[in-house]
Design brief:
Elements: H1 2-18, E1 34-35, E2 41-45, H2 50-55, H3 62-73, E3 82-85, H4 99-104, H5 106-116, E4 120-124, H6 126-132, H7 138-141, E5 146-147, E6 157-161, H8 164-167, H9 171-181, H10 184-198
Parallel strand pairs: 2-3, 2-4, 4-6
Antiparallel strand pairs: 1-3, 5-6
Bound molecules: uracil.
Length: about 200
């Protein structure tokens, strides 16, 4: 565990110094992924917001608080999971990250995923999902497990969810997100029993 933690720290420092994303020159600091390096799940958001940029931690604003509450409903804590973003730098005025900014941070994310090697990747919002599955639409894909083998990492299971910031003040989206979130333990159990059958 200590080794993997160290490995992740080195990975973040290396990528921050080599990353060509121009956003790095306008931010307070990079926002590295955070959490349990042995986690079976990685949550992937879009990009840090204002609070995250100031504090240097992912999902610590209102959306992060909502995420922590949803984790609680399935018996999990932030320390149990690993959470990161597609883009590690806050886009100015919280605009959407551009295609180039996402591409510039893509190798960093792949290395992060490969180091943790989770059983399940949960996308928080359409930006995160479309980075891996450009053809999918969040309104139809949310809450449904997608199984696909990519050549650059082992994880084959992906669950798209609405972004907690988008759902926070939208009654029906909020209910849907809470309902989808509660599927996570069952999905994880199914993935684990399928991998036992395969091995
Ligand atoms: N929204 C995101 O997508 N990521 C964060 O870290 C915070 C808000």
């Amino acid at each position: 565990m200590e080794n993997k933690k160290l490995l992740l720290q080195k990975l973040h420092e290396k990528n921050h110094s080599t990353c060509c994303c121009e956003l790095k020159y306008t931010v307070t600091q990079p926002v590295f992924g955070k959490g349990n390096p042995e986690s079976e799940i990685i949550f992937i958001g879009e990009a840090p917001g204002k609070k995250e940029d100031i504090e240097g931690e992912p999902f610590i604003g209102a959306a992060g608080k909502f995420l922590t509450e949803m984790l609680d409903t399935i018996g999990m804590k932030r320390e149990d999971i690993y959470i990161t973003n597609i883009v590690k730098y806050r886009p100015p005025e919280n605009r959407d990250p551009s295609k180039k900014e996402k591409e510039d941070c893509a190798e960093w994310l792949s290395e992060e995923i490969n180091t943790i090697n989770p059983k399940l990747i949960v996308f928080l919002g359409r930006h995160s999902m479309n980075h891996f599955f450009p053809e999918e639409k969040i309104n139809s894909a949310h809450g449904k497990l997608i199984t696909r083998k990519f050549k650059n990492f082992n994880t084959e299971n992906f669950l798209p969810l609405y972004h907690p910031a988008a759902a926070l003040y939208n009654g029906s989206m909020r209910e849907t997100l809470i309902k989808d979130f509660k599927k996570i333990p069952k999905i994880l159990k199914k993935i684990k029993s399928n991998s036992e059958v395969k091995s």
